[in-house]
Write a structure and sequence with these properties.
heterodimer; A: alpha/beta; Aspartate Aminotransferase, domain 1; Aspartate Aminotransferase, domain 2; B: alpha+beta; Alpha-Beta Plaits; 2 domains; 4-stranded antiparallel β-sheet; 6 strands
């Protein structure tokens, strides 16, 4: 057998995968490890999609996605975030946000181009950059700065070779967010360096305590921003695999070229579901967000009380407690927690080197589940002491 | 502190402790304890019950029936006097005054169909001012208090244990 692509052969399996394999072999595990909502998709959305099948809506759509859906997307983004895009030419419906990240990278990168990522970050960015021929450059985000991107750190890492940056706020895994004021400080740097920014805003609707802010709200750099968003987190639609990219006309047209050859068009029934979600699903978003917020409050208070220092995150459904006072590294902590108390969390280093010393805890679980998990973690911590 | 927030939380999960409530609402425990006590004293919180799936347990000891009751309202007292005369029976689990064809709707619990039927004919039908009753036996329960009584939702975890 001839050797396959070096890039793929050398790709490391994600640290999450390793942990998944371990956790899924054990009985009686209660998990705080998932990256998706516990809510089922609101029934009116599923029902609408089922009905679209009854009505024979089972064919390809336009490469960019159904125009009706694109119109709903741009309307939603204008009303909710003041992000202005043209449904005809600036929206591309994708198979989840993941495809969006991938085709954005493949569209803008030449071999050797540098791409800045913020460490810790979502596990897919590094491999996606590498597959597209890019070279990853990391900026370390710190707990003291609430895992925000600081202008001096950005300035320091930009070189002539920097082509793009991928950001993700609210952030998986840290729960960190950027406010409008935080962004104002980095906008001039982005403008001056003329880099592209792929802004993964999949958790936008899961913003707490403050308004969601985005680089796409700044007209002076609007054309450099590629917004990736989708339905998975806000509408509890992970399994539908539906996302989209908002960008300027030229980029959108170029990315559509890639998309049309690798995907053709996103699944039609999922697109119909998404139309219903945007038209009539906002009350569901509000209800779920309130639930997440309640769980967050409970979880963060309990973790801090048991001695795991945890920032109150202002977005996503993750908290990222600092476990260094226990004297254990992330993987040992998670392995022992799994073995001794049967609670599954994800070690922070699965999200990059800067995640060492932290663990990611998801609160996409019922309150009862979280309380039981906290009891076990507390028992674990007190036994360490 | 907003009373409604406490009620919302406890209505969905009566097992939350005062500490849990305090954590969720960013309050201190004593404040929450007092607020819950006040709600109980004011009979705003009237009880803490468990939702049981009767499809799976107590099958041979639980018969549920909805009883539609029509009655003549009484001058100056409306429906209330008749309503209390019916509601006092422990067999009556839940009772409403409705708009439409019937006046009261009562959820009645018994051990057997015969027991429920006899309760309706001997007791409810004989209450003063009651004109007629109609008994609707429950054959199967699909949803109670927001909870779908379904195998699919009982084996809830469709999600992978750990995902990015």
């Amino acid at each position: 057998m001839k050797p396959i692509s070096n890039k793929v052969a050398n790709m490391k399996p994600s640290g999450i995968r390793k942990f998944f394999d371990l956790a899924s072999t054990m009985k009686g595990v209660i998990s705080l490890g998932v990256g998706e909502p516990d809510f089922d998709t609101p029934w009116h959305i599923s029902d609408y999609a089922i009905n679209s099948l009854y009505n024979g809506k089972t064919h390809y759509t336009a490469n960019r996605g159904l125009l009706e859906l694109r119109k709903e997307i741009t309307k939603f983004h204008k009303e909710r975030y003041n992000q202005i895009y043209d449904p005809e030419t600036e929206v591309l419906v994708t198979v989840g946000g993941s495809e969006g990240i991938d085709i954005a990278m493949r569209t803008i990168l030449e071999p050797g181009d540098e791409v800045i990522v913020l460490d810790p970050n979502y596990v897919a960015y590094a491999p996606t950059i590498e597959l597209a021929g890019g070279v990853m450059k990391s900026i370390t985000l710190t707990e003291e700065n609430e895992f925000k991107l600081l202008p001096e750190d950005l300035k320091a890492v930009i070189t002539d070779k920097t082509k793009a940056m991928i950001i993700n706020f609210p952030s998986n895994p840290t729960g960190g967010v950027m406010t409008k004021e935080d962004y104002e400080k980095i906008v001039p740097i982005i403008k001056e360096s003329d880099i592209y920014v792929v802004s993964d805003e999949i958790y936008a609707e899961l913003s707490f305590d403050q308004e969601f802010a985005s680089l796409a709200q700044f007209p002076e750099i609007r054309d450099q921003i590629i917004v990736v968003n989708g339905f998975s987190k806000a509408f509890a639609m992970t399994g539908w695999r539906l996302g989209y990219i908002l960008s300027n006309k030229y980029l959108s047209r170029m990315m559509t070229k890639v998309h049309q050859y690798v995907i053709m068009s996103a699944p039609t029934m999922a697109q119909h579901a998404a139309i219903e979600a945007l038209k009539n699903g906002y009350d569901d978003v509000v209800r779920m967000r309130k639930d997440y917020e309640n769980r967050r409050n409970l979880l963060v208070k309990r973790l801090n009380r048991m001695g795991l220092k945890t920032n109150m995150p202002h977005g996503t459904f993750y908290v990222f407690p600092n476990i260094t006072p226990t004297g254990l590294d992330s993987e040992t902590f998670c392995n022992r927690l799994l073995e001794e108390e049967k609670v599954a969390c994800v070690p922070g280093n699965a999200f990059g080197d800067s995640g060492e010393g932290f663990i990611r805890i998801s609160y996409a679980y019922s309150i009862d589940h979280i309380i039981e998990a906290c009891n076990r973690i507390e028992h674990f911590i007190s036994n360490l002491g | 502190m907003n009373q409604n927030q406490i009620l919302d939380l406890l209505e969905n999960d009566a097992r939350l402790t005062s500490q849990d409530l305090a954590d969720i609402l960013n309050e201190d425990v004593e404040t929450v304890k007092k607020a819950v006590r006040d709600l109980e004293d004011d009979k705003i919180i009237c009880g803490y019950h468990t939702v049981i799936n009767y499809n799976k347990a107590l099958r041979d000891q639980k018969v549920l029936a909805y009883i539609e009751v029509r009655c003549t309202p009484i001058r100056n007292q409306g429906y209330d006097k008749t309503a209390f005369a019916i509601a006092q029976y422990p067999e009556v689990d839940t009772m409403y005054l409705l708009s439409g064809d019937c006046d009261f709707l009562c959820l009645v619990q018994g051990k057997t169909m015969f027991e429920v039927a006899r309760f309706v004919s001997d007791k409810i039908a004989c209450v003063e001012n009651v004109l007629s009753t109609k008994t609707l036996f429950v054959l199967k329960e699909y949803k109670t208090r927001g909870i779908v009584m379904d195998e699919r939702s009982i084996n809830e975890e469709d999600r992978l244990v750990v995902t990015p």
